[in-house]
Design a protein that fits this description.
Tscrpt_reg_HTH_GntR, WH_DNA-bd_sf, three-stranded antiparallel sheet, transcription, 235 residues, mainly alpha
């Protein structure tokens, strides 16, 4: 690691990384919907790139579990079953619980300073009643929360899980919490960090995940969608 103040090379992002970011975003917002097939020639033309880096980017998303490969057919956006949704939230709970433990043993002041604007952004989105803006702000809060732990591996895991979470939300907006409820949940998490209340924080994180899974389950049952075929949602 270079000494403080010492110049070092600036990391350059490859074309494949930039393409992967665009594909993740398209999946997250539903432009590429669950079950959609990815046409290599069409995508290369839309993105203005050659097929080499596009293939590399798509293989990254296969490894992340966002795309699935079918022999002799091609690549498809994964469809999340009810069991997949549950697994996503179990994994998110493990990642975010660990991140919270690291935050409480690290620089809580920095975490509060970074999370406060995230809650304020969520409050603005909630006041406007814009579901997409609320989803963006919700995701930004959780990305920031994990980032505050200072563990790059947790951040990488969180990134994929949050994209899968957003895939859920795109399909099942009706199970998303009411604006006031969503804002209150996140404010409580921030307050627990500010107060140094670790047990309360961990309880809130667990409740946040478990309650969302229950909402998804109830929403799927209400729509009478078979559990093995139903995509879910939650933030």
């Amino acid at each position: 690691m270079p000494a403080p103040g010492q110049l070092s090379p600036v990391p350059r992002r490859s074309t494949a990384e930039l393409i992967a970011d665009q594909l993740r975003s398209a999946i997250m917002y539903g432009s590429l919907a669950p079950g959609d097939q990815l046409g290599e020639a069409e995508l290369a033309g839309q993105l203005g790139v050659s097929r080499g880096p596009l293939r590399e980017a798509m293989q990254r998303l296969v490894q992340e579990g966002l795309l699935r490969s079918e022999r002799h057919r091609g690549l498809f956006v994964r469809e999340l079953t009810q069991a997949d949704v549950r697994d996503v939230y179990v994994a998110r709970l493990a990642v975010e619980r660990t991140a919270c433990e690291l935050i409480m043993r690290g620089n809580r002041g920095e975490a509060v300073a970074r999370l406060t604007p995230a809650v304020e952004r969520l409050a603005r989105a909630a006041a406007g009643g814009d579901r997409n803006a609320m989803s963006d702000a919700d995701q930004a809060f959780h990305q920031t929360l994990v980032s505050c732990a200072g563990n790059s591996r947790l951040e990488r895991m969180s990134q994929t899980l949050l994209v899968e979470t957003r895939m859920c939300l795109t399909v099942m907006q009706h199970v998303y919490p009411e604006p006031g409820e969503l804002l209150e949940e996140h404010q409580r998490i921030l307050d627990a960090i500010a107060d140094g209340a670790e047990e309360r924080l961990l309880t809130l994180i667990r409740s946040h995940m478990v309650d969302t899974v229950q909402r998804i389950h109830d929403g799927i049952r209400t729509q009478e969608i078979p559990p093995e075929a139903a995509p879910g949602a939650g933030a």
